[in-house]
Design a protein that fits this description.
The chain is α+β, with helices and mostly antiparallel strands. It is about 15% helix and about 30% strand. The protein is built from three helices and six strands. The chain has a six-stranded antiparallel barrel with strand order 1-4-3-2-5-6. The longest helix is centred in the last third of the chain and has 10 residues. The radius of gyration is 13 Å and the shape is globular. It starts with 5 loop residues before the first strand and ends with a helix.
Length: about 120
């Protein structure tokens, strides 16, 4: 991953738990879904104790201006990565993709937590 800050949009909230499960600063797991029938660059968003809460936006209609689509960040993240919630609206969330150093720090701070340390 590059040293540049990457911001992205999480959408599809109404299909899962809605925006009420998000809090500023929440850590969201990003999981690539290369076998997704609708989008080969699909990146699912999961939250600890909840599961899937949405997807990274990948359409010009759903990507918030100033953020990157799933297609733009797909090759910049690992198969499993993480982001931090920065802004919340009723139908989308803007999150900052965490760099490898921050992810490693989270893993070291939570060594027995499968949410941070599983390699699905």
């Amino acid at each position: 991953m590059t040293n540049h800050e990457l911001f992205t949009t999480i959408v599809g909230l109404k299909n899962y738990e809605g925006s009420k499960v998000f809090k500023i600063g929440s850590i969201v797991k990003l999981v690539k879904e290369p076998d997704n029938d609708f989008d080969l660059e699909a990146i699912a968003c999961e939250m600890k104790y909840i599961g899937k809460v949405g997807y990274i936006a990948n359409s010009t209609r759903t990507v918030t201006k100033g953020t990157m689509s799933a297609g733009r960040i797909y090759d910049k993240i690992d198969d499993i990565s993480f982001c931090e919630v920065k802004f919340i609206s009723t139908d989308s969330v803007i999150a900052k993709v965490l760099n490898k150093d921050k992810i490693k720090q989270l893993q070291e701070e939570n060594p027995n937590d499968d949410y941070y340390n599983s390699h699905e």
